[in-house]
Amino acid sequence: MRDPDQTLDRAIQTLREPVEIGEAFDRRVMAEVAGGSAPRRPGPIGRAGRWLIQPHVVRVSPLVALAAAAALVVALLRPWERGVEPGAAATQATARSVASAAVPTRFMLVAPGASKVTLVGDFNDWSVDSTPLVNGVSGGLWTVTVPLPPGRYRYAFLVDGRTWRPDPGAPPALDDDFGRPNSVLTIGGS
Amino acid sequence: MLRRVICGSGVLLALALAGGVAQAQEPRLVGRLSDAARAQVDTILESARRDGLPSEPLVDRALEGASKRAPDALIVAAVRRLVEELGAARDALGSGVSDAEIAAGASALRAGARPDDLAQLRARRAGRSVTVAEAVLTDLVALGIPPDTAAAAVLAMAETDDAAYLAFRRNVERDVALGATPVAALMSRVAGGETAVADPTGRPGPRKP
Amino acid sequence: MDGVSEASDAEFVHRVLAGDTEAYAGLVARYRDRLGRYAMRMLGNRADAEDALQETFVRAYRSLGRCTEPNRFGAWAFGILVNRCRTLGAQRGRRERLQIADEVALNRAADSADPVDRGALREVLNRALSRLAPHLREAFLLKFVEELSYEEMAAMTGASIPALKMRVSRGRAELRHLLSEIDDA
Asked: ipTM of the predicted structure?
């Protein structure tokens, strides 16, 4: 099985390859252009404007500013008591993680006898193996830090690939449809 | 040789052709659900999108079922139940709400909030997002607080901001962890002037944060 | 057209606006392949891509007086193309165009050292791209294929930068997933 990142990189290289449209296209365009009216020349003010260097305007919607401010409030408030560590290393990017608005969020589980623990939830499409926790120095404390944009996420830990465990330090999810309870995490700022 | 090239990925292409002409397919479900379950879920997704309901929570629910190796019937039933709750939340909240607000509303309904609670919350928030408020409502119920009490508390705090909601929830949690009963923890945070909150039993609260 | 290939975009633009219509052909020739690449990737087949491309160049010609930075004609025309692709994509629906798209490229691939692989990859790439929602596909292509900055993307699409980052991230993740599924097949 090929590495999906490698496949994706190869795909991007392929997509970047040039495309040939061909000269016949030019003739079609010029035929249509010549058939119609000539472009209107700009009026006196416009003509002067053309010679000015136009500043590059980037529209920033009010929502962007609000989200940025909210993210700052969240970072200062540390809403999730069990550890918000700005700057801590995050695992591989998840489908919804957005660098600028994401809050690094630490997940922990005590599982001394386990050989493998993964985090599985809404933020990684419930992938059972994309977000492994790392076993700490002692006591079987497994941890991982994941950047999460504002939102509400249901999740659980999968121990040794077969045992589902909710997060003892988080509220339980009340909608348990599959007989294996989850936990819920809310990252504010939305 | 071109024919062989095409047939090399022919199975997937044939599936894509069939799926593409008949109905849209959610790519993330391919290979994770059985074809039968996936077809049913795709139908629900398409109808949800047509109704303007968020599809992310539905896909997430299906993926959760897949990862937990639940039987097809259970996965489809779970997705169906959720789409109904999303619809009920959207009906209660009205138009112009975000996907996140609808999804959090559905969770609150599942937790036992009433549609009217959601409608009132939206009205009192006056244009600000209700997502965090709905989430805190749900979490308070998860702590053991009866839904109508939790709803009253959240409604009483409707003037405050998201950060205050989260702080409130966190404090109630901590008190419960320290041994208080959930309702007592809620009441003490409320009565202690944590925020501008009316007593959830209905008496007006005079203090401002 | 000797010597014309050295002329800047601005010189072409000014000549056209001064009445020399034929000079526009220089701009078309300069940018059609580059813009054509985006149109092909976004719309998935040559016919739609050339339609979008032709509409773009014609519109650009007709509103050439409103191009505020004539020396960046290409970027300005690209913005028009992105919008054209959105409209065309919505109208036509990629489902109706599931034929083998890029036959020129497939034939060329047949001559290359690795014919089977390249042809197959292009084909599955096209299909995988077609299964992304249009706004995700657009963001993915603008970021990873056209290599625009988020500021440029925001100015071009009118979406906010966080929204664009989210779309790029999701588009990338979905494409990655789709491609890895295909690889395993």
From this structure: 0.82
Look up tokens 């090929």; give the residue.
A2
Cα A4 to its chain centre, rounded Å, is 17
Q: Do A152 and B173 touch (CB under 8 A)?
A: no
Tell if the CB–CB gap between B170 and A177 is shorter than 8 Å.
Answer: no
pLDDT per residue as tens digits for the range B107-153: 999 999 999 999 999 999 988 999 989 999 999 999 889 999 999 99
Of B64, B131, B173, the CB nearest to A178: B64
| Subunit contact A14:C37, Cβ cutoff 8 A | no
| A130 and B109 Cβ atoms separated by less than 8 Å | no
**Terminal C-alpha separation, chain C:** 50
Q: Are A98 and A71 in contact (CB under 8 A)?
A: no
Do the chains contact at B9 and C123, CB–CB below 8 Å? yes
| Per-domain boundaries in chain A | 80-187
With 90 as the cut, is the pLDDT of residue C6 above it? Answer: no
Q: Classify domain A80-187 at the CATH superfamily level.
A: Immunoglobulins (2.60.40.10)
| Chain C residue closest in CA terms to B11 | C185
Contacts of B165 in chain A (CB under 8 A): 188
The pLDDT tens digits for C19-41 are: 889 999 999 999 999 999 999 99
